[in-house]
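Run: sequence + flavin-adenine dinucleotide -> complex structure.
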Amino acid sequence: MTIEMHPQRWGDPGAATTLDESARALVDLAFGLTETPAVSGATPPVTRLPEELLAGLRGIVGEEHVLTDDDTRALRTRGKSTPDLLKARAGDLADAPDAVVRPRTPAEVERLLAFAVEHHVAVVPFGGGTSVTGGLAAQRDGYAGLVSLDLVRMKRLLAVDPVSMTATLEPGLRGPEAEALLAEQGLTLGHFPQSFEFATIGGFAATRSSGQSSAGYGRFDSLVVGLTAATPTGTVTLGTAPANAAGPDLRQLLLGSEGAFGVITAVTVRVRRTPAVKRYDGWRWPSFEAGADAMRTLAQAGLLPTVLRLSDEAETAINLADPDGIGSESSTGCLMIVGHEGTAELVEARRAAVAGVLEGLGGTCVGEEAGQKWAHGRFAAPYLRDALLDVGVLVETLETATFWSNRERLYAGVKQALESSLEGAMVLCHISHVYETGCSLYFTVAAKEAADPLAQWQAAKAAASDAMVAAGATITHHHAVGTDHKPWFAEEIGPVGVRVLRAVKAELDPTGVLNPGVLIP
Ligand SMILES: Cc1cc2nc3c(=O)[nH]c(=O)nc-3n(C[C@H](O)[C@H](O)[C@H](O)COP(=O)(O)OP(=O)(O)OC[C@H]3O[C@@H](n4cnc5c(N)ncnc54)[C@H](O)[C@@H]3O)c2cc1C
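>> structure
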């Protein structure tokens, strides 16, 4: 059975959590007494799609796969950013689709798009619903209605080529489902974003996602060798060789296209053998600078482990989650997680080589316990966000990336913007995606909720986004553009870049039925 997330919370409802005593003490210490915010029941607006259009949709996918009940539509409303959760908690489901439509085949997707064009119905491709940038909050004004094109029934492993080490997957497979199918063949994709439990193959491709093991396996777009997408103009299949010089790489137009150019119906990815051994170690650094320099050295020496992440001083202290321990000697410095996966021989050889470099740079290995603790809790943080929202603490994350030479400036600029905007905020940061030329910075922010937490966060987010642009960094390393990042995205790609995107949109989706208002500035 497919587990559905509650519209007002993250994740498996069975894994919902509350703050334990030590976390509650930490909250009191950091923010003083917080008030428990009210949570309203939420009901989506009445469906606006007329009966004849619903009948037309039923004719394509079958009666039971056109759903208009409130619960199903509530579950397909927006994504899982903190603003999305705050709106849902306040009872606002105004962005709910008029219907949820579940195709089974690429041919049905094509027919749905043709139907949407004919009747001017807006279509929102829906994978796991984990967008954190408003990628599922399409505009509906001017359309006959808005349908969520839910890919939940397209969940097959279509092909495996064990010689070339590729696999072709349908878009609706969630992370664990894809891994389970590949594991039956002794293979892994190695893509483990924090949203792994719910996010899908199609969503990873449509947002150019990056997972926690990106240092070893690569970001999702680098794993894709081919894909098929249905567009209102026709279906396109790309990727006939591992590499080519056949003009610009059109796969890149669809990777990151966030449902605005087409519906991705199949993705062919590189796969690896299931690793026999996984070893994650903790390393301690005297400062964020020292740890970041060590990451750069590894990347530039071609010695990247499978997992490489570094928490700044504040995140290191909080990760220890012991209010009494904060400020003590054991909580100072910065924690780095260094993970190796592969055959026993490869892991031992890489581990020794990496350890040699890290020791030479002043790092101290603190053993496997810290690494295991991270691996064990790697998908837990979003559940904690709900528990904090429950007690009136606003928590959200944001991310960016830049070149190594600009890293300190970017870190200082974004941190300062967040701290100035959110009084008494706790701002934590880590680096978890590393390249020869630079890295991403991932910030977690917590503050006592103001009377209007949505406005409070929107102001802070705008300040942080301005700081990213001012520092010459990107507005997003892996969360994508959606609706939230559009103004800064436009600045990042410039007026000619915007025109190129609009031209592609006009060609592939001339009447603009696909995800209106998403991605394209
Ligand atoms: C708690 C949490 C942690 C996260 N951690 C990470 C992380 O570690 N790394 C990371 O990269 N991201 C992360 N994200 C962001 C999010 O999970 C990713 O953007 C993910 O790739 C979205 O996949 P999805 O299947 O949920 O897509 P959805 O949220 O359903 O859709 C995202 C966008 O892609 C479009 N889309 C979806 N499927 C298709 C398709 N088949 N064809 C065309 N368009 C499509 C949608 O219309 C939408 O615009 C996190 C989000 C949350 C809430």
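>> summary
Residues 321-329 have pLDDT under 50 and may be disordered. Residues 10, 79-80, 124-132, 135-136, 151, 171, 193-195, 199-200, 202-204, 206-207, 209-210, 258-259, 263-264, 382, 478-480, 515, 518 surround flavin-adenine dinucleotide (CB under 6 Å).
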